[in-house]
Design brief:
single chain, eight-stranded mixed sheet, six-stranded parallel sheet, 21 strands, alpha/beta, DNA-binding, 29 helices
DNA sequence: GAGCTACGTTTTTTT
DNA sequence: AACGTAGCTC
């Protein structure tokens, strides 16, 4: 069969990766180097050359989006359905294993996936039961602790460092949590991975079966794997034992150590760094030719990232043009920062560009508010990328809980969530009784609800309400028996009273919620049940639990994209603004004292820079109000790492605006007038160098001035002695 | 059970 | 500053 067309249009490194002989491969794919293309073509190559069958390939990603894209592209390239190929996220593939082998995995057949919301509720409840002071030990931290341990593959009984009281308490909660999950057949996200790893560990035959089946494993974003994922992959794809003949599987790891930005949630950059050692005979290929950005942008990115240590090493280059210089703008404050951005976007759009070609990136979500306000004021359509996801919304989770109860009456998390939504007179008191009874009898809340009534544990009124609820569920269940999936969803959303409930809610919020519920029905209509033997509803619910659902389901107006640097990974835009380029904000102050975390921040900066195709703006604010406090940040060290020859400072001709309102602003103006200086003015000091005027105080010989110096940070000086010189700021 | 107030929190996010 | 939550009152 002719396979050369699969190499058409690829560069040498890409070809090498696609057509490599059977061996472990590490593909270091720089930003914009065509990594998905290589991955997809490699799969096609393996199939077409007969080195693998569709049955024998596994392709793993982190997000559903990436999995979907890979699937689509394979289908398009080969023009065959990819149905029975194992392409999916770590979680969906591991979940598939657990569903097939629930018995061996020590799970009930109807085990339920719990999202982080459910998880936190459970932890809170357990901690209350254990009478742990939740001010000293916040449940959020317990959740964090548990997930961290699980990501590392550590079970409760093996937790280290239980000498200090905090860790001991946390370990205790973890232990209770583990037991509670096991008892109710609940599985959290980390558990899916850990459990499926243990499944193989404890069932060598099973592992052997899958090893024989999946001879070729391809992994995307390898730098983001955590300890368990890595162990899982090594088990499946790694060399087994010492016998050379035992090495029959081939792992292709595609990733970029320079884009590892998820260390804080368990990702281990070491996994990619030591891949060549752990996977014997691995061949490393570097994709360094970039098809996205101008040379200027790549030079800046290369230069910044070169300040990191222990890199596998990589240098992006392009055949494209040098492009525009990077623009650096010093805003007076965050409002000025936002204003500059909107006006720059205005002229960009006037030049005939689409708003959708622009992204404004920030380190933390708190920064988005001011930007949003500016966009609204200027009437520029924008969209916030990320944020709350569809399946995480309260009303959606409630609707899903009803569906889950129909699926399985013994789903306690679902029971608790909606037993009183819409309100039907079942209060905390009643639920406590049910919980207590369920716990003592080792039964589900559903069963407890029935027994409690029969045993007369409830007041007449409560018993009545509870019966109303259980009857409602039974009725919904009976009535939807012969319905299709979307009919069921539609029916349940209506008859559960949720629509009615949210309609009564005041404000636009209720309206939006009703719309979301309708959107859920649409999602059910469009849901592809596939060839699963399970009931469609179960498949739908499982998938919903593992798919946050893209938040961007909304109408597709041409709009500017606002997002955090983290969510920008993998995306590209012609014009990119990196905002808040101040030490303390970016790099974030929580990270700047730890060299490792600082390097991760630098990688984040690298990710940000390499999002830009044509033009990059770096923006910072001399003065920023954050969480109600003033900050006088200094230019981010990362900006200083960019060669000055690539950067051009921008200063607006129009005067920088002062803080509005307030008596002080008025007084400041007076003080400014007789000094000849004004707020936002660039001044030069014989010792401290250049800086920006931030504030004024007093008048005459007592007048003091606050200047934020580039190199020294902000200082108060006595105007009469300061020997400040105004720097001409009209050079642009 | 709803509505109000006071208090605490606040890096980054996927599954 | 702004938002969510917890606890309190009616």
């Amino acid at each position: 069969m002719d396979v050369t067309d699969l190499l058409d249009g690829l560069n040498d490194a890409q070809r090498e990766a696609v057509a490599a002989p059977e061996q472990h491969l590490l593909v270091l794919a720089g930003a914009g180097s065509g990594k998905t293309r290589v991955l997809v073509h490699r799969m096609a190559w393996l199939l077409r050359t007969g080195q693998a069958s569709a049955h024998g390939i596994m392709a793993v990603t982190f997000t559903n989006k990436a999995a979907r894209e890979m699937r689509d592209r394979v289908e398009k390239l080969l023009n065959v359905p990819s149905r029975h190929m194992w392409i999916g996220t770590f979680h969906s593939l591991a979940h598939r294993l657990l569903r097939h082998h629930w018995r061996e995995a020590g799970l009930p057949e109807q085990f339920q996936i719990m999202d982080s919301d459910d998880q936190l509720r459970l932890i809170k409840r357990l901690m209350k039961q254990m009478q742990i002071d939740d001010t000293k030990y916040p449940p959020k931290q317990a959740q964090w602790f548990i997930n961290q341990q699980k990501d590392e593959g550590v079970r409760a009984q093996y937790v280290q460092g239980v000498n200090n009281p905090f860790e001991r308490t946390m370990a205790g909660v973890y232990d209770a949590y583990e037991k509670a999950c096991q008892q109710s057949g609940l599985v959290d996200f980390a558990e899916i991975l850990l459990r499926s790893h243990e499944l193989w560990l404890n069932n060598p035959d099973l592992l052997q079966h899958y090893r024989q089946r999946f001879r070729h494993i391809l992994v995307d974003e390898f730098q983001d794997t955590n300890a368990v994922q890595y162990a899982w992959l090594r088990m499946l794809g790694g060399s087994q034992g010492q016998a050379p003949s035992a090495t029959t599987n081939y792992l292709m790891a595609v990733g970029d150590d320079d884009q590892s930005i998820y260390g804080w949630r368990g990702a281990r950059i070491e996994n990619i760094q030591r891949f060549p050692q752990d996977f014997a005979g691995a061949h490393t290929i570097r994709l360094e030719q970039n098809y996205r950005s101008t040379m200027t942008i790549l030079q800046a990115a290369n230069e910044v990232i070169s300040h990191n240590s222990g890199r596998l090493g990589k240098n992006l280059w392009t055949e494209g043009e040098q492009g525009d210089p990077i623009s650096l703008y010093a805003g007076f404050n965050e409002q000025d920062e936002a204003r500059f951005i909107t006006s720059s976007i205005d002229s960009w759009v006037k030049q005939g560009h689409k708003k959708g070609s622009v992204a404004v990136l920030y380190r933390s979500n708190a920064q988005s508010r001011v930007l949003e306000e500016a966009f609204i004021r200027e009437g520029i359509p924008y969209r916030i990328y990320g944020g709350q996801r569809f399946y995480e919304r309260l009303e959606i989770k409630n609707a899903l809980a009803y569906l889950r109860l129909i699926q399985s009456r013994h789903d306690d998390a679902a029971f608790e969530r909606v037993v009183n939504v819409p309100t039907r007179g079942i209060g905390e008191r009643t639920i406590m009784i049910l919980r207590e009874h369920a716990r003592s009898q080792g039964i589900s809340l559903w069963q407890a609800a029935h027994e409690a009534r029969e045993l007369g544990l409830l007041t007449a009124r409560a018993a009545n309400s509870v019966e109303g609820f259980t009857q409602l569920i039974d009725r919904l269940s009976a009535q939807t028996l012969d319905q299709t999936l979307d009919e069921t969803v539609h029916y349940v959303v209506e008859k559960s009273g949720l629509i009615e409930f949210h309609k009564k809610e005041k404000g636009e919020k209720g309206q939006a919620r009703v719309e979301n519920l309708q959107e859920l029905v649409t999602a059910a209509q469009e849901f592809d049940v596939g060839d699963s033997e399970e009931p469609p509803l179960k498949t739908f619910l499982d998938e919903a639990a593992l798919d946050a659902g893209d938040a961007q389901a909304e109408a597709f107006e041409d709009s500017v994209q606002l997002m955090t640097l983290h969510s920008a990974k993998g995306l590209e835009f012609e014009l990119v603004f990196l905002t808040g380029m101040e030490d303390g904000l970016f790099p974030h102050k929580m990270s700047q004292d730890d060299p490792q975390r600082l390097e991760e921040e630098r990688r984040l900066c690298y990710v940000g820079i390499t999002r830009a195709e044509k033009k990059l703006y770096l923006i910072y604010a001399e003065h920023r109000r954050l969480h109600g406090q003033d900050h006088y940040g200094r230019l981010s060290r990362f900006v200083k790492e960019i060669p000055t020859t690539l950067v051009e400072e921008v200063r607006l001709k129009s005067q920088v605006s002062r803080p509005v309102s307030s008596q002080r602003a008025y007084r400041d103006t007076a003080a400014l007038d007789d000094s000849g200086l004004r707020l936002g003015q660039i001044v030069s000091h014989p010792v401290f160098g250049e800086g920006t005027v931030l504030n004024f105080e007093g008048s005459g010989p007592q007048a003091r001035i606050q200047v934020n110096f580039r190199a020294e940070g902000s200082k108060w000086l006595v105007l009469a002695y300061a020997k400040l010189e105004a720097v001409n700021s009209e050079r642009c």
